Structure formats: structure tokens, C-alpha cells
Predict the structure.
Amino acid sequence: MSNPSVDPTILNAWLSARSVARGLPMPVHEHGGFRVDTNSDAEIARWVFPKVAPGIEELARTITEPRYFLKLCGTADELQGALPKAWKIYAPSYFMRAKKEPPARLLPDRYAIEIKRVGAVIKARITFETGALAASGYAAETSEVFIYDRIVTEPEHRRKGLGHVLMRALHDTRQQPGTPELLVATEDGRALYSTLGWETISPYSTASMTSAP
């Protein structure tokens, strides 16, 4: 079953901060979830639901194109069970929350880190001595939450602790220490964040139409 601790208020706060980080419209409450109009080449819009609700199936039956995504704080099986057969389920992700301050870690030799804040959005970049980008990530801070977004370590620079350093550097920019720290992680990302003191609030499942009918 879906984890009952997924509070719609917290989910909306995370989505709102994610929109700030990506320059997207604010989420709109709709069908028992939250719609974000992403309007990119890969995605026109997404709806994110804090739990299984009748609105998921009702909405899915109105969608006839593959570039609309439905996301659920719940398992893939729960989401699949609420959708018509023409929908594809993607690899699982996880909605996560920090439980403690991440431990400090030194940046390895031959690497440099740059942190830049513009308003509520923070960008971090770690570069190798050649100037090549080794890792990067974003954070966004609102009055309600501090969220991490698009945390990436390039394949040739993995297993050197760069993701750890990056997360700590973003964490240290926080101006309101009492707010929750949130992110959505892939399976691999969850392993890293768990070592930094994060806990999984809920599975985070995604589906879209496989093709237009």
C-alpha cells in the first residue's frame, strides 16, 4: 500500500520548489493530485498524486497522447492497477527526506567546486583540472522546503565521493535550517542518499501512454 505519511501539503511544496528550480509554472491542484505544465519536447504536462485516487483513472481515460505523465507516491503495481492497459510503467524512483545533516567530506585532489545562487535557486558544479564537468546539481529554497534537483555525477568521475561533496555544498547554502530537505531519487541515487542520512518517504512511480490510440 502507499505510505500514508506522504502529506499532500509537503508534496505540493516539493513540486512548487521544483518548479522554481526549473523555471516552470507552479503546480495546480487537479483530479486529486497536482498538475505541472512542463511544455518540453519530451513532456507536455505531468500530474503527481500523493496516493491512489479515483481521479487517476478518470484523468488517464481523457489522455490520448504519450507526452503526458502520471506520477504516484506509491508502488508501480498500485499505479498500474489504476490505469488502462495502454499505459507504460517506468523504472521506480523514491520520494526521500533528509533525517540528519550530511557528514562533511573533502573534495578530491584535482577537482574544484563552484556554487552560485540566484534568488531561490542554487547551482553547484564540480570540474576536473582539465575543465571537464565532473558533477553538477541544483537546489531551490522556499519558505516551506529545501529541495535538491538534477544531481548528476558524470560516469568517468563516479565512486570518488563527488556526489557526497556536492550534496553537502548545496546543504550548506540553506538560509532556513528548520525546513524539510526533499528530493526524488533513482534506485542508484537512493543508495547514495541513504548513506548521507536520508530516508525513503514513499516509492515514486511514473507512467505514460505507450502510443496514441
User: Anything to note?
Assistant: The mean pLDDT is 94.
